[in-house]
Amino acid sequence: MRLALLERMLRRFxxxxxxxxxxxxxxxxxxxxxxxxxxxxxxxxxxAQTSLDFAVSNVAxxxxxxxxxxxGATGVDIQEDICEGFGSLLAVxxxxxxxxxxxxxxxxxxxxxxxxxxxxxQVGNFGYDPSVGSDIVVVRAYYRWQVLTPLFERIFANVxxxxxxxxxxxxxxxxxx
Length: 177
Fold this sequence. Notes:
Blueprint: H1 2-15, H2 20-64, H3 67-70, H4 75-86, E1 97-104, E2 116-117, E3 120-121, E4 136-146, H5 153-156, E5 163-173
Antiparallel strand pairs: 1-4, 2-3, 4-5
Helix pairs in contact: 2-4
């Protein structure tokens, strides 16, 4: 009797479709949410990189035309201008923005060292060198971007603490001013 009852219950359980949607959702949910968060993270990185490029381009134009030099702009002023342009769409912390403006004697002499050494971001050699007319100038901006999704830190991070260093560089010859 008990065996027959057990067999009937097993057959009924086998035919039952209740809960199959929940099980299917459970199987698909993790990959779906991982993909969704991954796309959102890539979109935020793309927006941040594009915003940084735009801000550096605008500030580099003021250096190229001599507007920054005639106004007596300092490295802090240049950094604030880049941060203001960069943060127009994003909530950014200007403490994480670093600039490096260098003058070179020729385009062939331009050196572009990697500031990431042994998975650490090195900021010791950054500075602001105000230029004069017809100088060759390289403007670099670095922003320490915190990866928003913890699961993607290993994929997107390029320094040891899990952050991503965004870089924007402009190289040009100043106009004669």
